[in-house]
Specification:
The complex is a heterodimer of chains A (291) and B (305). Chain A has helices at 2-31, 38-55, 59-88, 97-120, 144-166, 168-178, 180-185, 190-215, 223-237, 242-263, 270-282; strands at residues 134-137, 140-143. Chain A has 291 residues and is mainly alpha-helical. Chain A has a single domain, classed as ABC transporter involved in vitamin B12 uptake, BtuC (Orthogonal Bundle), CATH 1.10.3470. Chain B has a single domain (3-300), classed as ABC transporter involved in vitamin B12 uptake, BtuC (Orthogonal Bundle), CATH 1.10.3470. In chain B, strands 1-2 form a two-stranded antiparallel sheet. Classes of the chains: A mainly alpha (291), B mainly alpha (305). Chains A and B meet through helix 3, helix 4, helix 9 and helix 11 of A and helix 5, helix 12 and helix 14 of B.
Chain lengths: 291, 305
């Protein structure tokens, strides 16, 4: 009974983690950027969805759509005013760009977080669930919304797979991850590929944010934690590896659920951190990373 | 500027700052400066590791926290005097730093950063889990404090910050500093020239840990309490990093300038309330985007460096 409960809850939370983390890893793979404003972008999506769906009366679906839209806009703004200027800057040595992007996106994330806290306070916001009601799965009463979350997350990831493997733009994206110079030589504009990957990232982070908001509720204070968990999932799976992130998201999601249910919810992140340290020491490229 | 000029200038500035309490500066401002100076030490230690050894330590508050908690627990439970607690705290930070760094330095770039970040989160969790012993999130009160007078506390902080500033700056301009810088910029070439890159980086990490642990232990005896919010939380580490980058990486002294700037700016922006963090972050972001050398970058970085 409890085992089944853990199985179901863990599945929902893991699919959610996977959606967010895949966006994070995609950006790293394609443009080498670790975006530390990730959590703030997810929180923005959730808060906008909460605002539009509730106070502005657009209903759960309208709210979710506009929330994802806000996330796309914010992710493009992040790229445009923080990441690209640093990447193009002549004053910053090439080997130091990485740390500048990290610090820059970190500061940007704090700014976004503070604006949200200022306007909407840091009280947790719960986004209206997309589907109400409770479904009985083999004796475990499961909110319909939890099933919807897992379904939406998997549909999103399925669409992403199709986009990457079956379209020209998507293939160019993967090529950019392997060898950007070669792609430029083939006549592709790297700039537009970066715009494409940041847009896709915005959609993924936005969906993950809205779903998280309807599942657990989101507050601006969560931004740092959300970034850290995406970062750990991505490193656990192997930086830049999409499949790795997917697997790692489930490892993390289930490990957290098991700890929360069987030991104590207050230490739910500890086993994940320990696992992370072990994996990074023994296999720095991650579970499925290439080097 | 030449090493000698900068060192002389720094000594003059420290001397002038030591006179501040006589210039009618009130206890409140001195209190702010005291915290800022300890933060300055954290930032200078961080810069030695990042600016020179090229390793991004996302968890400066791991080293700070180990030093602070070791000293705090010894004082609270064993009633050791402060004079004994502080050095033991600093040594504990070095030991913890070594345990962390020896395996972690095999890793590079984001992986090293991640391990240091995880170390902070783990330390924080451990402290909270054993709250009965460590005081957890509420904190542990300390029977002893450094001094009651805000002037004396300020002088202690200034003394520590001054010595650390001079020592680290001299180190950064010495042969060892150059080797570190070479290891940070091109580890393979530095190794090919016959320098032991790992040993130099490890030494940088130990020194960084030593000063962070020392300042962390001093800070809690100034605050009179040790809690995760004041010495371990990720936000402390973030502030240290912002201070160092803002002041100018690879300058050492920039860390102290950045830390003082942050605290003063936070104070001046008090009227705008919640938005002050936003404004400070935005300012730091602008500095990074437009003046990547930081506040001191123009003056201190050697030509051609």
């Amino acid at each position: 009974m409890q085992a089944l409960q853990i199985l179901i809850d863990g599945f929902a939370i893991s699919s959610l983690y996977a959606t967010g983390a895949i966006g994070f890893t995609l950006i790293f793979g394609v443009s080498g950027v670790l975006n530390l404003s990730h959590g703030s972008i997810m929180v923005t999506a959730a808060v906008v969805a909460w605002l539009v769906a509730g106070s502005l009366g657009a209903g759960p679906y309208g709210g979710a759509l506009i929330g994802v839209g806000a996330s796309v806009v914010l992710s493009l703004v992040t790229y445009g005013i923080v990441v690209r200027p640093i990447q193009n800057s002549r004053a910053i040595a090439r080997e130091e760009k990485e740390i500048f992007v990290l610090t820059g996106t970190l500061l940007w994330g704090i700014m976004v977080q503070e604006v949200i806290a200022y306007i909407f306070t840091n009280n947790p916001k719960t986004v209206l669930p997309l589907i109400g009601g409770v479904v009985n799965i083999l004796g475990v009463r499961t909110p319909g919304n939890e099933i919807a979350i897992a379904a939406i997350a998997w549909i999103t990831m399925g669409l992403l797979w199709l986009l990457v493997n079956r379209t020209r733009g998507g293939k160019a994206l993967m090529a950019a991850a392997i060898n950007p110079r070669g792609l430029t030589l083939c006549g592709f504009e790297l700039g537009s590929i970066h715009l494409l990957v940041w847009t896709i990232y915005g959609v993924l982070a936005g969906i993950a944010g809205v779903l998280l908001g309807s599942f657990l509720g989101v507050s601006s204070d969560n931004a740092g934690q959300l970034t850290a968990s995406a970062f750990s999932i991505v490193v656990l799976g192997g930086l830049g590896s999409v499949t790795g992130s997917l697997v790692a998201a489930y490892v993390v999601g289930y490990l957290e659920s098991l700890t929360a249910y069987l030991i104590n919810p207050s230490i739910r992140t500890v086993p994940v951190l320990l696992l992370l340290v072990i994996v990074v020491y023994l296999r720095p490229q991650g579970l499925l990373g290439r080097r | 500027m030449s090493t000698r000029k900068v060192l002389l200038g720094t000594i003059v500035v420290i001397f002038l700052m030591a006179l501040l309490p006589f210039a009618g500066v009130g206890g409140y401002v001195l209190g702010l400066m005291t915290s800022a100076l300890y933060f300055g030490v954290f930032a200078m230690g961080w810069d030695l590791l990042f600016g020179f050894a090229g390793e991004v330590n996302f968890g400066p508050s791991f080293l700070i926290g180990v030093g602070a908690y070791t000293a705090g627990l010894l004082n609270h439970y064993a009633h050791w005097p402060i004079i004994a607690c502080v050095p033991v705290g600093a040594l504990a930070a070095v030991v913890a730093g070594l345990l962390l760094a020896v395996p972690a330095l095999r890793l590079s770039g984001p992986y090293f950063g991640l391990v240091t970040l995880v170390a902070v989160l783990l330390l924080q969790n451990v402290i909270v889990i054993f709250a009965g012993f460590t005081g957890g999130e509420i904190g542990l009160d300390l029977p002893d404090v450094l001094a009651i007078s805000s002037k004396v506390n300020y002088w202690y902080a200034l003394g520590v910050a001054g010595i650390v500033a001079l020592a680290l700056f001299a180190l950064s301009r010495s042969a060892v500093g150059l080797i570190l810088q070479a290891s940070g910029q091109d580890a393979i070439e530095a190794a090919a020239l016959g320098f032991n890159v790992v040993r130099h980086k490890l030494a940088a990490f130990c020194i960084s840990a030593l000063v962070s642990g020392l300042a962390g232990a001093m800070l809690i005896f100034y605050l009179g309490t040790v809690s995760t919010d004041s010495v371990v939380d990720i936000s402390i580490g973030v502030q240290v990093i912002i201070a160092a980058v803002l002041g100018g990486r690879r300058t050492i002294l920039g860390g102290a300038v950045g830390a003082i700037f942050l605290i003063v700016a936070g104070e001046l922006l008090r009227p705008v309330g919640q938005l002050s963090t936003f404004i400070v972050s935005a300012f730091a972001l602008l500095v990074i985007l437009f003046f990547p050398g930081g506040l001191l970058g123009r003056f201190i970085v050697r030509e051609g460096a």
